[in-house]
Design a protein that fits this description.
By secondary structure, the chain is an alpha+beta fold. Helix content is about 35%, strand content about 25%.
Amino acid sequence: MSTGLSELEILRRNALTQLRELGIDPYPPEGYEINTNAADILANYENNKEAYQKVSFAGRIMTRRIMGSAAFVEIQDSTGRIQVYLKRDELCPEEDKTLYNTVFKKLLDLGDFIGIKGYVFTTQTGEISVHVTEFKLLAKSLKPLPIVKRDEDGNIFDGFTDPELRYRQRYVDLTVNPDFKQIFITRSKVINTMRAYFDEQGWMEVETPILQAIHGGAAARPFNTHHNTLDMPLYLRIANELYLKRLIVAGFDGVYEFGKMFRNEGMDRTHNPEFTSMEIYVAYKDYIWMMGMVEACLEKVALATHGSPIVKVGEHEINFAGPYEKLTMYESIQKYTGIDVSAMTEEQLKETCKSLNIEVDPSMGRGKLVDELFSEKVEANLIQPTYITDYPIEMTPLAKKHRSSEGLVERFELFVMGKEIGNAYTELNDPIDQKERFEDQLKLAARGDDEAMAMDDDFIRALEYGMPPTSGLGIGIDRLVMLMTNQSTIQEVLFFPQMRPEKKAKITTDEDFVNAGIPAEWVQVIRKMGFNTVEDLAGANANKVFNDLGGMRKKLKLELAMPSKEDVTAWFS
């Protein structure tokens, strides 16, 4: 008995051994010729039947119905499922029927990858199918796939639905829940549409460092690492802004990058420590111009993914066609709280936050207090695309001072469905002003603000060589995809979201089972029933275990005295 393996896993490993004994490699090294796929056959066969008389494709066995010398099987490839038909005497015209009777019927399992050659036909019930003339095992599946059951209307009522398992085992999730693939197809379409739009404008896609000596470009806590050869600390980037601006200094008129950012912060429905951002910087532009560019870009994204600028998100219909509503930061707070904070001092802001039951701490400067007030009282109200503009200077160390309003900077954030998805500035290109802003950030860090920016002397030096007027924008790709796919959690739009360490199952010995009250002669039967730990057994239903024991006793032809129902119930006490 292999400890830790269920009965089905043991049976599949036995089948693996038997296949090899028959001279069949369950993991052949050579490629398999494919000239079509499930979606192509189903979409085009009726209009061009002659083209599908010699088809070759491959996929997983998902269901099968064996009727003696014939069988129907559903094969799933990357495009969908299609039914195939196998007939023993056609696959095995000679006397030896091993390929069908043994290999197909006994040694293949649901989840195995096989290659199919044959011709397409329509069954008597009108279903387009493939008549198999040849099949080949391409990969043996050693773990059984979860069985997803559907009712007559196609609704799933017993499937692989636990989010913890789905996110951790995305390879299983997308196999048995293929509808979720559309989320990631849409994600790819979002990025490709944005990239095509930028390229049409003549802006260049670039790559900047992920490992950085100084964390900058955003207010966030970084991940720390160490380079052994250089013997120096490094940080995973929290933003790529300062490097992209260096390229504007270098003479590029427009640069953009789709890239991973890393922030050592909390995790929730809209935050993952590793996320994808698009940042773009265009010379000789300002944040007012950038608003129009964002509206044009996002309308293209909505049209590419939905065929309309209007996208259904939850109970709302979000219109991505511009122009979007515009509110200054102070206007938005006054609109939703009735309080004018524009002229308040830091102490007055603290008292205002306390009166609204917003937590404050000594490390918070004026900018942080305004940000907390806005986050708590305004954000949730911003459903349709809305620009929040003209932020207090303390909140934005990298943006240019407002051209007409003292104490503000030229910045906007784009909010949709109560969440920020874009952030843009008229970029600060005055090196003296920029150095003073960095110095203010150092003071906040000294007060305990671990999200304050560090001094970046090389970036100051770059600005001293001269950077033309520039507008920059960052868009959170994951949140944008959430909107375009009507998903409420960021984990749904990431192939592999960050997860807590998987709890390893405790190894249970036969002695552990015996100590729990199970007679020694029944321990291996319990294991064959799939209970590999005492905890697994304790979580089961006592009546069902009793009935299943009787079934296993009969199936395995065991000459053991059947324990009484009372004895089995005692195992669970």
